[in-house]
């Protein structure tokens, strides 16, 4: 058993999800081939980070993220800060020879993502990006069904990710609404997951035509807190929202399939409305994250009197599930996806292997985001290859 030492940057919503995932990896999967050790954590408030470190069991804490990157006792630098910091932190980590666990979207632009890919590939470190929904055992199964030809040629992908956490106009401004800190709005924050699923399951998207809309044009400046936890006082100043609430987009895949991706952060009633329908010449798949332990499968080879979508219950036959339960139907939750993600990374680092989805996968997602963003701005079809960056 090899100890794999973690240096975490950021103690917000995702910092907590990552830290608890690492703590759970040995409990769920056992200690082999690697056991995560919570070595050091960084955030900007000295008292808060010290307290947080003690609660989660990190040996040390700091307010300077560079100490994490430079720490000789750190094997993996885990980046859970707002989007605009990812590139600088990930490149510094790669240059220090550290493996990288970074949240999505990988960077503010695909050009910055390409710089991360170049630095990581040059130093030969293992990388993974937090597309945790791909770690749901249902998605490995969906990918397997498609690869085995069960659906025939894929003709259509319709994907979505809607949430309503910003539907209330009284929710204050936060970094997610600041173009310089977040990049795009719903598209990068939520849509990146849908684009990741589309490319994981169907293949690369080559052409896009999008449109977007900002529904709530200004929000109150927060008094404190960060991200989803921001709070506001009465009479606070208002600030203009700098990126979109909704994006809808037509897409064309390299393999000829067509479809749509749509995303909203003001999607009233949608709590975790990530999902897709995939149609092929021999069958179809339907998935919604709100029922993440089920996959709907249609096979046209079924006898006519039995034709229809059937519900497959995700269970020990599907990659990643068995470590949790020996029976289908009990079901995994959001944080279990993160445990599988953290486990895949720890295993890869312990064995000196690559793992997916890596920074190159995330760069391909960022190119599609850039293409959709440009398409919305210029009101035209955009080829994703317009955002090819030479990675060297
Ligand atoms: N994979 C997912 O399902 C998922 C879900 C939510 C967020 N995310 C991603 O995770 C990242 C963080 O999002 P969040 O919701 O956790 O945000 P958050 O605002 O809750 O947390 C960000 C944390 O980073 C800290 N931070 C800011 N600057 C720092 C610095 N210089 N050094 C150290 N720490 C610093 C903040 O103090 C805060 O604790 C984003 O990239 C976001 O897109 C992914």
Q: Can you walk through the features of this model?
A:
The protein is of the alpha/beta class and 392 residues long. The protein folds into two domains: 2-131, Rossmann fold (3-Layer(aba) Sandwich), CATH 3.40.50.720; 137-331, 2-Layer Sandwich (Dihydrodipicolinate Reductase, domain 2). The chain is built from ten helices and 17 strands. It has a nine-stranded mixed beta sheet with strand order 16-15-14-13-7-12-11-8-17. Strands 3-2-1-4-5-6 form a six-stranded parallel beta sheet, sandwiched between helices. Strand 11 and strand 12 form a beta hairpin. Helix 5 (110-123) runs antiparallel to helix 10 and helix 8 (186-201) crosses helix 10 (359-378). The protein is globular, with a radius of gyration of 21 Å. The two termini are 35 Å apart. 50% of the residues are buried. The mean pLDDT is 97. Nicotinamide-adenine-dinucleotide binds at residues 9-15, 42-44, 65, 80-83, 85, 103-104, 130, 132, 189, 226-228.
Bound compounds, please?
nicotinamide-adenine-dinucleotide
Strand content: 15-25%
Query: Ranges with pLDDT <50 over ≥5 residues?
Result: none
Beginning-to-end CA distance, first to last residue: 35 Å
């Amino acid at each position: 058993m090899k100890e794999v030492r973690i240096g975490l940057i950021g103690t917000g919503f995702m910092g907590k999800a990552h830290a608890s995932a690492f703590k759970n990896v040995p409990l769920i999967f056992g200690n082999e081939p690697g056991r995560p050790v919570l070595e050091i954590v960084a955030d900007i408030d000295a008292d808060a980070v010290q307290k947080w470190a003690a609660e989660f069991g990190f040996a040390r804490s700091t307010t300077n993220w560079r100490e994490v990157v430079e720490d000789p006792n750190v094997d993996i630098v885990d980046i859970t800060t707002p989007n605009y910091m990812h590139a600088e932190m990930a490149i510094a980590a790669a240059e220090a020879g550290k493996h990288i666990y970074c949240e999505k979207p990988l960077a503010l632009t695909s050009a910055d993502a390409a710089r991360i890919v170049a630095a990581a590939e040059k130093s030969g470190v293992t990388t993974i990006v937090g597309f945790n929904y791909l770690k749901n055992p249902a998605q490995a199964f969906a990918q397997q069904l498609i690869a085995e030809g069960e659906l025939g040629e894929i003709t259509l992908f319709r994907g979505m990710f809607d949430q309503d956490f910003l539907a209330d106009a009284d929710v204050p401004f936060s970094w997610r609404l600041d173009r310089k800190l977040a990049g795009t709005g719903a598209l990068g924050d939520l849509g990146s997951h849908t684009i990741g699923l589309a490319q994981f399951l169907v293949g690369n998207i080559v052409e896009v035509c999008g449109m977007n809309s900002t529904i709530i044009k200004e929000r109150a400046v927060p008094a404190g807190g960060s991200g989803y936890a921001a709070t506001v006082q009465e009479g606070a100043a208002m600030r203009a929202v700098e990126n979109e609430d909704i994006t809808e987009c037509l897409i064309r895949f390299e393999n000829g399939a067509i479809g749509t991706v749509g995303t909203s952060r003001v999607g009233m009633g949608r709590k975790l409305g990530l999902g897709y329908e995939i149609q092929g010449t021999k069958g179809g798949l339907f998935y919604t994250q709100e029922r993440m332990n089920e996959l709907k499968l249609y096979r046209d080879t079924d006898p006519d009197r039995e034709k229809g979508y059937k519900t497959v219950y995700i269970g020990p036959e599907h990659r990643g599930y068995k470590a949790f339960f020996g029976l289908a139907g009990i079901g995994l939750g959001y944080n279990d996806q993160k445990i599988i993600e953290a486990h895949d990374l720890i295993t890869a680092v312990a064995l000196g292997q690559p793992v997916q989805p890596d920074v190159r996968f995330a760069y391909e997602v960022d190119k599609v985001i850039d293409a959709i963003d440009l398409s919305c701005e210029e009101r035209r079809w955009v080829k994703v290859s317009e955002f090819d960056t030479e990675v060297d």
